[in-house]
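Q: Please design a sequence for this.
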């Protein structure tokens, strides 16, 4: 039986993870952690003092995830990270710490298998198109922008091509930020925050005479649970660092 703790247990994703862990026959929910809770653990440190935790799943917020992850790895708790907002330097530090402590760590910007396939398709298509931009659309309570999924998508596409602005003219923004954020390989990312969305992303690729759009839409947070539980089972068995769910599919 895998003993699982969920940090951010009162959040929308946290509640779904708690239910998924409870419903799975070979996992046991041993700790629900949320800073805003009454009757739950308020911190990972509190839960760790009382419970034997094999794997912690973190869906909190960008301001806390880095310290949460370092505490887990330094204390032999394997961690699955769904919280986005980690900087490249922080991810590299966690990679090194996971190796030093011989403790598994899996970071996934998106746990939807459909979204992961969308990222993989975008990388594959990137070899055959001259230009590409990303539009990501989320609910208006998402604190970080651009999304971790958009960043990961651009990162993967950059492995296929060094520049996605072939033939573009010299540009002038009359309103700052109009062209979005310029990311890896000059892929522009545009972030939309709007009530009514959960999570959607479009990758638009173009070359002379053709446009291709790859899009994924999330309608229900339950779609993430298959990926979350896959990650829990994977990290329980492994002591390595993994960035991206596509590496374990």
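A: Design:
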């Amino acid at each position: 039986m895998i003993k699982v703790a969920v940090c951010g247990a009162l959040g929308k994703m946290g509640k779904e993870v708690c239910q998924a862990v409870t419903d799975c026959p070979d996992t046991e929910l041993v700790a629900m952690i949320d800073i805003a809770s009454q009757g739950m653990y308020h911190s990972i440190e509190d839960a760790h003092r009382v419970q034997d935790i094999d794997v912690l799943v973190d869906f909190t917020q960008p301001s806390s995830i880095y310290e949460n992850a370092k505490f887990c790895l330094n204390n032999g708790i394997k961690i699955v990270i769904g919280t986005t907002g980690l900087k490249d330097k922080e991810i590299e530090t966690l990679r090194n710490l996971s190796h030093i402590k011989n403790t598994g760590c899996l970071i996934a910007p998106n746990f939807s298998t459909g979204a992961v396939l969308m990222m993989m398709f975008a990388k594959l298509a990137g070899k055959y198109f001259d230009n590409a931009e990303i539009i990501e659309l989320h609910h208006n309570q998402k604190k970080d922008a651009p999304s971790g999924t958009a960043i990961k998508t651009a990162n993967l596409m950059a492995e296929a091509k060094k520049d996605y602005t072939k033939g573009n003219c010299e540009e002038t923004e009359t309103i700052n930020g109009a062209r979005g954020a310029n990311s890896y390989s000059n892929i522009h990312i545009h972030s939309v925050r709007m009530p009514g969305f959960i999570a959607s992303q479009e990758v638009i690729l173009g070359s002379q005479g053709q446009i291709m759009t790859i899009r994924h839409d999330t309608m229900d947070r339950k779609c993430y649970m298959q990926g979350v539980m896959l990650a829990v089972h994977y990290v329980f068995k492994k002591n390595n660092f993994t960035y991206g769910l596509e590496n374990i599919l």
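Q: Thanks. Anything notable?
A: Residues 2-107+222-247 form a domain with the Rossmann fold fold (CATH 3.40.50.720). The chain has a mean pLDDT of 96.
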